[in-house]
What we know:
The complex is a heterodimer.
Chain A: E1 5-15, E2 21-31, E3 35-40, H1 46-53, E4 61-66, E5 69-70, H2 74-83, E6 84-87, H3 91-94, H4 100-110, H5 115-128, H6 144-156, E7 162-166, H7 174-186, E8 190-194, H8 198-204, E9 207-212, E10 215-218, H9 219-222, H10 234-242
Helix pairs in contact in A: 4-5, 4-6
Chain B: H1 12-15, H2 18-34, H3 38-58, H4 65-91, E1 96-100, E2 103-106, H5 107-131, H6 136-145, H7 150-179, H8 188-218, H9 235-255
Antiparallel strand pairs in B: 1-2
The complex binds adenosine-5'-triphosphate and magnesium ion.
The site of magnesium ion has 4 residues of chain A, from helix 1.
Amino acid sequence: MDNGLIIHMQGVSFAYPGRGLVLDGLDFSFHQGNRLGLMGANGSGKTTLLRLIVGLLKPLSGRIEILGRTVKEEKDFVRVRERIGLLFQDADDQLFSPTVLEDVAFGPLNLGKTREEARAVARNTLQALGLEGFEDRITHKLSGGEKRLVSLATVLAMQPDVLLLDEPTTGLDESTETRLVEILNGLDCSYLVVSHDMDFLAKTTDNIGYMSDGKLSFDEEVVPHTHIHVHPHGRYTHEHSEK
Amino acid sequence: MIEEGFSQGNSLLHRLDARVKILWVVLFSVVTAVCDQWPVLTAALALALAVALALALAVAFMARVAPRELVRRLMPVNLFVIFLWLVLPFTVTGDPSFTLGPLVATRQGILYATQISVKSNAIVIALIALITSTSILTLGHAMHALRVPRKIVYLFFFTYRYIFVIYREYIRLKEAMKIRGFCPGTNLHTYKTYAYLVGMILVRSSERAERVHQAMLCRGFRGRLYSLSDFSMRTADMVWMGAMSACVVVLGLWNG
Ligand SMILES: Nc1ncnc2c1ncn2[C@@H]1O[C@H](COP(=O)(O)OP(=O)(O)OP(=O)(O)O)[C@@H](O)[C@H]1O
Ligand SMILES: [Mg+2]
């Protein structure tokens, strides 16, 4: 394991049954401390990539190494999921317990914490996200934005090393989005954020990857350029200005 | 849809240990169901009504709504009872009571139908009074504490959680249809559209279930749900359980 390499994918290909390749020989490495953004057209395979990392989908070919170990089978991924948290695109998929506190405590309890510990972790996480007083709220009666923040709390409560976020800003108003930016910037955690919102990524990430043709590419590798941009992230604006 | 209108409150009935409530309702239902003496059945109905009244009084600000709400919730049972009334009096053999065209109603038949009406209403009233004063959440945990099989408890929780989501999905699809000028009639197009609607809801629900399961896996789910809450029997629970069970036992003995 060289200098904090957490996720290492080599030549990973994937296709849903009866369709062409979504990922086609994709290479990707993710290091400790990375804060990456991920963009790409609808249907380019971003969600698919995140699902492969946590083992909800299995690649057709290629290698996935996580924390220095090759992961292949379900039991390998059980340990991966304790270290890598995934925030789903739809918050209703993530929140299944009747009350907020129970949902946030679900992960810690599964990790073997006692009820008291789990309760404490859940409370602290909610507090850190500015969600005090939400403990006994009924999850399906929350607003869309509240659901999203609570979902984030459920993932953070597991204290993961890496956070994978699938379009966390959809359906958030400006102030909640600002809050999310602050939360992410205050996190002591590496993360990979999928988003179509350039400004959001500019504020929360250090580098942006771009999915196309089943492959993932990053700024430096694809478009080496020296001119100064107004934007912190060269490639996207660059592409526009060339068009 | 599931409403929990009565579940908020702080009366004795609300604070009662949910396990006690479930156990008592089961006991009461069994005894009421097997009794067949009129005075006993009347007493059982009275007992159920008394408990319901206690709840109605406890939820004071709702007191005016409560009777109407109670009647509304009794509707489904009584719909079923009405069908029994249409059939039983004319099919049970016995002494003729009155005739309706070619049909002869018997005294035994009428008594039998009345008995079923009283029994089912008594049981449902008791159930409504005790169960609706408990939140669904607590009920689920109480079921778990009473050693109800885990799968049933999960089923109960997930039904509660996702019925709203599925209902919303249904409404969304229906609105999408309306917006594009669909208006139901008695024709093949309507049937086909409804078939699509139902099919779509089934597919979406099953996909949703898949994703929820995946989200649970991502958070370390290994087939066990842990509960955050604990139940504790207090003196009040014991006293209530003792007194109310005694009532039911007396009913049973009285019936002989
Ligand atoms: N369960 C599935 N079965 C079959 N095909 C699927 C399934 N899920 C996704 N796909 C297809 O795989 C491709 C990649 O989907 P994916 O969800 O990864 O895209 P995405 O980059 O996340 O898109 P978006 O920005 O719209 O969220 C799409 O063409 C999609 O139609
Ligand atoms: Mg996606």
